[in-house]
Write a structure and sequence with these properties.
heterodimer; A: 254 residues; alpha/beta; four-stranded antiparallel sheet; 25% strand; globular; B: 367 residues; mainly alpha; MetI-like fold
């Protein structure tokens, strides 16, 4: 296993650290002794076969799932049962879901302003200005007054990204952001994510979009059966996979 | 062979016998021999029932007069209702104080209309006034005892006024209590959860008549002598608890229909439990269960008639009491038709408003 090569944008400030993390669903051991350090500005792609625990891994980082053993430290805050810690971590981590999970009863603009207004206590005017800025960035500002149900899947996912960005997170988690999209809409979402990566956002992305992984990632994690099997920079990972399980996986998806 | 269309084909109008009134008749009433026969039979039945009913209720009815002697024709004798209308509306409320009831109901009518009509400004202030100030105003108007208003004891309250008081207070209290119980039942906190489950299952498991009877007869036996709770209040609390248990289950149905992703998205954005419930989950859940909520409201509105068994004279009880008047024997049909129409108009309005609300709140395909 090769060590992480810090790229130009990557500093040595640790944003997320997992030490000996274990998690069970009932008797099922879904995460096995995970150790991981994510540095500021890193773009990490997590891939692996279905059910390997990759989604669970990133969902533990903002406590959507609870881990039973080990430590997870996000921006210097240890995730434990203390609701204040969880709250602080969630304000600092944005998350984008496979199913977008926009709030269907609110307009695009209201979706983006809800958390800034009620969690960060920003004045509504200011929140709307911020929202417009990010909606512009994902090129969907002209749809601000529509409801999510009136938008296409790709548009919805771009709104979901903007909604997360409105909270000014320092880390973004993407849980298979393009898996629920029609093929012609995948690119518009990936383009937004590439832009985000170029701006130096710390990103953890569960995806099977290997083209995207090659373009933006500076590290690829391969998981199977709850373990990180292989960890490498993208060129090495795709051209020269080490383990048999990685080789098998890559042969199936490429 | 290759087919290549260079210009799009023009859209043609549909065949004339498939549109308009003729098309509708052909499609819906006379599409086959059997359907044509059924249509004719149906029309005959309508012909035999509707004109006589209208004749009785409207065209051959007696409308004006002051006594039984005014009713000379074959139709309904609405004079009976007309003469007693004040009692039907206000029960035994002193007639010099009717203005208080009228003022109170007019005020709430204006406030509710203000909130329901879309284009009115300052809804927030009006809503706060309706929720926090209006009940106090209404209490002093109905009951009196302050600002020089003489006290009118609750046993004098009756008729439509009592029905409306029971129904509106019942609805406005049962909905929030029901929401809290539904959230409690889905909560992971063991105490909140078991309290909600026990509360809901207890109140849902007993008939409303039992609840009213217990509140009116049994409760005073167990209470200390000097602590007397008003009979109306006891009945009201019984109705509220009973209906909030039903409401809780309706709301829970809505909460369960909201996808887990909505909860997760709200959590991931850092919204606290109560904020995510108020801004994300409940607006969607309540919208989904509008039909169920209105169903419960309508049931509650009609169930208020059961208070007659504990000696409260709501609209139905007052009308029934009027049947016993020796001067007006034999007009029970008119009385019941009157009561039924009042209930029907009220319930149908609620139903229509709820349908309007559903349409208004529909924001495209819910995920």
């Amino acid at each position: 296993m090769t060590t992480v090569q810090a790229g130009q944008q990557v500093s040595d400030e640790v944003m997320v650290e997992l030490r000996g993390v274990n998690k069970w669903y009932g008797d099922f051991h879904v995460l096995k002794n995970i150790n991981l350090k994510v540095y500021k500005g890193e773009r990490i792609i997590i891939c692996g076969p279905s059910g390997c625990g990759k989604s669970t891994l990133i969902r533990c980082m903002n406590r959507l799932e609870e881990h039973q053993e080990g430590d997870i430290v996000v921006s210097g805050i240890t995730l434990d049962d203390d609701l204040k810690h969880i709250d602080k971590v969630r304000r600092d981590i944005g998350m984008v879901f496979q199913q977008f999970n926009l709030f269907p009863h609110l307009t695009v603009m209201e979706n983006c302003c809800l958390a800034p207004v009620w969690v960060q206590k920003k004045p509504r005017k200011e929140a709307e200005a911020t929202a417009l800025k990010f909606l512009n960035r994902v090129q969907i500002a002209d749809q601000a007054d529509k409801f999510p149900g009136q938008l296409s899947g790709g548009q919805q996912q771009r709104v979901a990204i903007a909604r997360s960005l409105c909270m000014n997170p320092s880390i973004m988690l993407f849980d298979e952001p393009t898996s629920a999209l029609d093929p012609e809409m995948i690119k518009e979402v990936l383009d937004v994510m590439v832009d985000l990566a170029h701006e130096g956002m710390t990103m953890l992305c569960v995806t099977h979009e290997m083209g995207f992984a090659k373009t933006v990632a500076n590290r690829v994690l391969f998981m199977d059966a709850g373990e990180i099997i292989e960890e490498n920079d993208p060129d090495e990972f795709f051209d020269n996979p080490q383990s048999d399980r990685t080789k098998l996986f890559l042969s199936q998806i490429l | 062979m290759t087919v290549l269309l260079t210009t799009p084909s023009p859209s043609l109008p549909p065949p004339s016998n498939s549109v308009g009134i003729v098309g509708w008749l052909r499609k819906n009433l006379f599409s086959s021999l059997l359907n044509s026969i059924l249509t004719c039979v149906g029309l005959y039945i309508v012909y035999r029932i509707v004109p006589p009913a209208l004749n009785w209720a409207l065209f051959q009815a007696d409308w004006v007069g002051t006594s039984k002697e005014a009713c000379t024709s074959d139709g309904a004798c609405w004079v009976f209702v007309g003469v007693r209308i004040k009692q039907f509306l206000f029960g035994f409320y002193p007639s010099s104080e009717y203005w208080r009831v009228v003022t109170s109901f007019s005020l709430v009518g204006v406030l509710v209309a203000w909130l329901l009509i879309e284009s009115t400004p300052k809804k927030g202030i009006v809503a706060a006034f309706t929720i926090f100030c209006y009940p106090i105003i209404a209490y002093f108007l109905f009951y009196g005892g302050a600002f020089g208003l003489p006290v009118v004891e609750t046993y004098k309250w009756g008729g439509l006024m009592l029905t409306l008081i029971l129904a509106t207070i019942g609805m406005f209290c049962a909905l929030p209590i029901g929401i809290v119980l539904a959230l409690g039942r889905r909560s992971s906190m063991p105490i909140a959860k078991s309290f909600s489950v026990i509360f809901i299952e207890f109140w849902r498991g007993v008939p409303l008549i039992t609840v009213l009877f217990m509140s009116s007869v049994m409760l005073p036996i167990f209470m200390p002598e000097d602590l007397q709770i008003d009979k109306l209040l006891r009945a009201l609390i019984g109705i509220i608890f009973f209906q909030s248990a039903y409401m809780a289950e309706v709301v829970r149905g809505g909460l369960q229909a909201i996808p887990k992703g909505q909860y997760e998205a709200a959590e991931a954005l850092g919204l606290s439990y109560w904020k995510s419930m108020v801004f994300v989950i409940l607006p969607q859940a309540l919208k989904l269960v509008i039909p169920g909520i209105v169903n419960t409201f309508i049931a509650l509105f009609k169930d208020t008639t059961l208070v007659l068994i504990i000696g409260l004279f709501d609209l139905l009880a007052v009308v029934q009491a009027a049947f016993a008047d020796p001067k007006w024997l034999g007009f029970s049909v008119e009385g019941y038709v009157f009561v039924a129409s009042v209930y029907w108009v009220s319930c149908f309005s609620m139903s229509r408003y709820s349908q309007h609300l559903e349409k208004k709140l529909h924001t495209g395909h819910a995920r």
